[in-house]
Specification:
The chain has about 150 residues and is an alpha/beta fold. Helix content is about 50%, strand content about 15%. β1, α3 and β2 form a beta-alpha-beta unit.
């Protein structure tokens, strides 16, 4: 038997990721963006079309970010405590999850306490109701735009 090359979507993701990595090598030389996927407990129907683990692993391994991880609910009390400990001045954070307007309201105080400006240092993305490949495209576009401002 011949060796299987895996599903076609794996090839597509690898191709997108490689092109993204090549295109944004200048971002890798600068400070990278911290990437957080907030999944609203993991039971939000808005994430039912996405393979959360494929998404975060592709971002973590193939995109020009400092790190990427999943948090279950940043808008809850433990999310506030987490952000208070985690956020660092002079860094940009890309948080994917709910609506950008909501994120700015929810995280404004935590960013201010860390010496950050939520309008400049937060890159909020809504990836709900998207398939994995569509969410990856949204992140790719946001990284392109962030690279232009570096």
């Amino acid at each position: 038997m011949g060796k299987s090359s895996g599903p076609i979507w794996t090839t597509i993701f690898v191709s997108i990721a490689e092109k993204t990595r090549q295109r944004y090598s200048m971002v890798e030389k600068e400070k990278k963006i911290g990437f957080i996927l907030c999944v609203c407990t993991g039971k939000c129907p808005g994430f039912s079309k996405m393979d959360i683990w494929d998404f975060i692993n592709i971002i973590r391994a193939e995109y020009p970010v400092e790190y990427a991880f999943v948090h279950p609910m940043l808008c809850d009390e433990d999310g506030d405590r987490f952000l208070a400990e985690f956020l660092k001045k002079d860094r940009k954070y890309m948080i994917t999850g709910c609506a950008p307007v909501m994120q700015k309201k929810l995280f404004r105080d935590a960013f201010k306490a860390a010496g950050l400006d939520v309008k400049k240092d937060l890159i909020p993305l809504d990836v709900r109701d998207m398939k994995t490949e569509d969410a990856l495209k949204v992140v790719k576009k946001a990284i392109e735009e962030a690279a232009e401002t570096v």
